[in-house]
Amino acid sequence: MITVEGLTRKYGSFTAVDNVSFVCQPGRVTGFLGPNGAGKTTTMRVMVGLTPPTAGRVTIGGHLYSDIPNPGRHVGVLLDASAQHAGRTGREILELGARTMGLPSSRVDEMLELVSLTPVEAKRRLRNYSLGMKQRLGIAHALLGDPSVLILDEPANGLDPAGIRWMRGLLKGYAERGGTVLLSSHLLHEVEQIADEMILIGNGRIVAQGDKKSLLANAGDSVAASFVTALDNERLAQALQAKGITVAKAGEGLRVEAETVEVGRTALESGAVLTDLRSAEGRLEDLFLELTAETQREAV
Amino acid sequence: MTAMTLDLSGTEPTPFGRLLRVELRKSYDTRAGRWLLISIGLLVLAAETIALAVTTVQDEAMQFGDFVGTAAFLTSFLLPVLGIMVLTTEWTQRTAMVTFALEPRRPLVIAAKAMVGVVLTLATVVVSTVIGAVCNALYGAIEGHVDWTFGWSDFAAFTITQVLAMLGGFALAALLLNTPAAIVVFFVYKWVLPGLFEVGAQLIGWFGDLRPWIDFQMAQNAIWDWSHSAGDWGELVVSGFLWLGVPLVWGIWRVLRAEVK
Q1: Interatomic CA distance for residues B13 and A74, integer angstroms
Q2: A96 contacts on B by Cβ (under 8 Å)
């Protein structure tokens, strides 16, 4: 379990992390979401003792990180997959980690296999690795000591879609076995499918936290919407408008400001034949952008 | 694994010997590190072979100690670079993030790195001595007479001054955490400053009295001479404190407090 209590980190007059508190529970994947420069990395670096906090503290399983003996055996850390010696081979990087933790070399082979780095790839030097391969190596390094807590900063960065799916399965399984997982991302869709719990941070402050459902419930006024396509869009649109529902053209079909069930009912009543009906996703994304709007570099 | 608190009772702190072995491995598991070590070896070999060739051609008298001394002069250039690189590489390659995440007790990591510098310096001394012995034996075979004079006091002084040279580099590296800067400053302090001290001592009377206390290179003569004067050793301690102690303590203090990025 990771407990962040009143964490603040200032750089001169700039406050990178501003009184942040949250808890990551064992058995759950916690997503740490925010735009670039929101304070995610700084928070994670304080967790593992690389950055001293200005105020507040972080405990992992009730201990300060610096008080954990041989911490690699308890907490797996991946903060920056590129922060390794470019002249070392992938295998050598894991070998150094394993030796520091007092693990046999066979553990290195197991981890290489787990992250699907082939023996040939493992013999290459890091400077010849793609970002995706560096991430796989970094995840292997974090898992070396069979830790019960994982702290991963932007682990999906640079992974291809298959790699992202693989990592999702890996971390889900890890949490199901009782592990605590904290992973950060600036991309909502990366986190939304894997995280049981989400923490949204912007400008160094937590703007929202909770599971997907409660985040949406708190969003309040945002209205459900559906995309629908019928053989006769015109007739369906008229029937919906007759009920006072807002309808707009969207591509081949319509965007309707109502739940799918309401659209389906109206179609049945009006006799319109539906070829496609789905809920308009992206409400969470709207919420994410809205909550972090002040900290976005681009106007939303 | 579902416990809310971590059970640490089964985990031993990482023993220092293990850190030392890992840090030693880091010094030669990259091309840059390996070639630095190989160049030191090759330089020693070249220096002593040239000394052998020149002295046998010109029929000059040569002792065992002379061969090793030739190598010592050259390795005193490269060993500080070694001392610098064992530390600065962690910053230039940003591996300090991983190193200090796996061992948050930073003083132990730094101590292990300094020990690696000492171990490699001692290895260099051994290599220089072995090659020197071979060269001296060849000299004897060619010239028909051989002089194995190489007093233990010289050997000890050679070893100590080499370790001090390496630690000098290490101390500046801790202070600057940047390879080129540390190398430049080290060579200024080792080769340029003594000259300036000399000029200063000639021109300014009182500086001549002060100089022995701040010129670490000159003060090291006490080691070679095995001086019986307490004053000489006092000068070594004071100048050593100035050039080794202060940068090392200041540098380590900085590393301990630094945000590692």
Answers
A1: 12
A2: 22, 25-26, 29
Cα–Cα distance between B126 and B132 in angstroms, integer?
10
Give how many domains chain A has, as a whole number.
2
Backbone angles phi, psi at A50, to 5 degrees: -85, -25
Q: Which chain A residues are closer than 8 Å to B29 by Cβ?
A: 88, 92, 96
A213 and A237, same domain (yes or no):
no
What is the domain extent for residue A80? 2-218
Q: Are residues A12 and A138 in the same domain?
A: yes
Position B183, amino acid:
I
Report the length, in residues, of chain A: 300
Both A38 and A146 in one domain: the answer is: yes
pLDDT, one tens digit per residue, over A24-38 is 999 999 999 988 888
HEC profile for B121-151?
A: HHHHHHHHHHHHHHHHHHHHHHHCCCECCCC
Say if residues A51 and A43 touch (Cβ distance below 8 Å).
no
Q: Three-state DSSP class for B102?
A: helix
**Hunting for tokens 């102690």 — which residue is that?**
B245
Tell me how many domains chain B contains. Answer: 1
Going by C-alpha positions, the residue among B110, B101, B121, B211 that lies closest to residue B163 is B121
Partners of B97 on chain A (C-beta within 8 Å) are 50, 79-80, 83
Q: How far apart are CA A125 and CA A135, in angstroms?
A: 14
Tell me whether residue A202 is in a domain. Answer: yes
Beta bridge partners of A57: A5
Q: State the burial class of residue A8 (Cβ atoms within 10 Å of its Cβ: 0-12, 13-18, 19+).
A: middle
Best of A2, A28, A88, A100 to mutate (most B CBs within 10 Å, chain B): A100
Q: Radius of gyration (Cα) for chain B, nearest Å? A: 22
Give the Cβ contact number of residue A250 at 10 Å.
Answer: 14
CB contact under 8 A, A73 and B11: yes
ipTM: 0.87
In a domain, A86, yes or no: yes
Question: CA A158 to CA A165: how far, in whole Å?
Answer: 13
B18-68 pLDDT per residue, tens: 999 999 999 999 988 899 999 999 999 999 999 999 988 888 888 888 888
Touching check for A23 and chain B: CB below 8 Å?
Answer: no
As given in the structure block, the two tokens for residue A85 are: 């010696």
A64 shares its domain with A161? yes
For the entire predicted model, the pTM comes to: 0.85
Q: Which of B72, B74, B63 is nearest to B133 (CA)?
A: B63
Q: Which two tokens stand for residue B156?
A: 């000890």
